[in-house]
Design goal:
Length: 196
Amino acid sequence: MNAAYVPIQGSSRVPLPGAQVLGRVNPGKNIEVTLKLRRQKPLPDIDARPTKPMSRQDLAQFGANDADITKVVDTLGALGLQLLSKNAATRSVRMSGPVLVVDGHAEPNGGTSAATPLVASLIVLINATGKRVGYLTPLLYAAGTQGKFNGSVGCDDVVSGDNVTAHAGGYHAATGYDACCGWGTPNGKSLAQLIT
């Protein structure tokens, strides 16, 4: 484990009774992790609990703290995981990313195999808002506002790295569109705003 990380008491993995390891997970596969966060206020003792139903507002005091949710999302986001959902009332945060990130590596890995399910999930989320993405490529290469291509507005530019291999060669990332990373990594909010 990296010396910069501090284990949190109670966060170790405890196998279920009778569980056994069948093998390692394919590191290129995308997985989801659901974290259950601490309550911002402990539940009252069973004898001190209310005798009538509580409102949503009353129940909210026993959910997760917004600052805790933000810290989890920011920390795991910095490790390459994407936020799928968060809910203070259920104290849950759902994140997704390639196994290599989740399994202790500090950098995301997996290339297209890792990116494709994440982009597909992003499109599903955009479609769920009532917008219809359809075939995305023509939108990305169309001229947008301010004289820029939509792809440069809907994606965050990747300016370093490469996909060079010893046998096949490859390309290097550069400012703007390049053969290595295209327009870059999709920015969910910006991309959703481009789709009408």
